[in-house]
Specification:
The complex is a heterodimer of chains A (84) and B (170). With 84 residues, chain A is mainly alpha-helical. Chain A is 68% helix and 11% strand. With 170 residues, chain B is an alpha/beta fold. In chain B, strand 4 and strand 5 (82-85) form a beta hairpin. The chains are: A mainly alpha (84), B alpha/beta (170). Strand 1 (36-40) of chain A pairs antiparallel with strand 8 of chain B.
């Protein structure tokens, strides 16, 4: 396989991984009660609005994804329980 | 008059975010009073640039705890009106410690603060929190918001107890 071919595969894999991460975060947000809102900056977002931001991957969506992934990584590494 | 045991708190209240910050500042105010701090509680309509500047000039508090909306360039007061920005950072008392609970102020504006303050703690990203819509009337009972505000309050209460800024940040 040429270098270019490898690069294409890895880009494709990265994009697939990003899709899966987005789906995972959306699934986690869907578990929130409808009574929950996120207040951030001047905005006040309900569950479905959060999902829209994640789907669009705008600034708020990206922050939400980063936050969820960081949380899951800390949980997996045990960092979340260090001070307990 | 420089007063090392004086805490100035700004807490506007005009939308869900500031409403929560307003109420969640109360435990900090109570803790400061318990530790015999003089608390300058600048709240709601009083959080204007003029009032804020006047308190800083006359009282020179050594601890500043600012709540409200913010950006890379501004800390806002009541109704989103600026109270602290690049052109008035010189009113920050020399050697004071500044903690700003606002979005993004840690990016660039915070760096200007430390020309005057001895230390600054702030958020370089958005400050956000999950909350229950049913707790709007009594934010202090909101079990979700607690996960964001308790650690955030801990920064100030740790400083009030005399710990270092590094320890408060950790």
């Amino acid at each position: 396989m040429s270098d270019r071919g490898s690069k294409d595969v890895s880009t494709e894999e990265a994009s697939e991984l990003q899709d899966k991460i987005r789906e995972l975060v959306i699934a986690r947000i869907r578990t929130l009660s409808e009574d929950v809102s996120l207040s951030v900056g001047g905005e006040d977002l309900k569950r479905e609005q959060l999902i829209e931001h994640i789907k669009k991957e705008d600034e708020i969506g990206k922050d939400l994804i980063d936050m969820q992934i960081e949380f899951l990584q800390d949980m997996a590494s045990g960092a979340l329980y260090e001070n307990q | 008059m420089k007063t090392s045991k004086t805490l100035l708190v700004t807490r506007p209240n005009y939308d869900p975010t500031t409403h929560y910050c307003y109420h969640w500042s109360e435990p900090v105010i109570n803790k400061a009073k318990e530790k015999l701090f003089r608390v300058l509680d600048v709240a709601t309509e009083k959080v204007t640039k003029d009032v804020f500047e006047s308190y800083l000039k006359k009282q020179e508090p050594q601890f500043l705890f600012l709540n409200g909306h913010g950006s890379d360039t501004v800390v806002a007061g009541q109704d989103d009106k600026p109270i602290l920005e690049k052109d008035n950072v010189n009113i920050i008392p020399i050697g004071s410690i500044v903690y700003v609970r606002s979005c993004n102020v840690g990016n660039t504006l915070g760096k200007d603060f430390v020309q005057y303050a001895s230390a600054f703690i702030g958020y370089s990203k958005a400050f956000g929190f999950l909350r229950l819509n049913t707790s709007m009337r009594n934010p202090l009972t909101d079990p979700l918001a607690k996960f964001s505000f308790e650690p955030s309050n801990l920064i100030v209460t740790t400083l009030i107890k005399g710990k270092s800024v590094r320890e408060a940040h950790e």
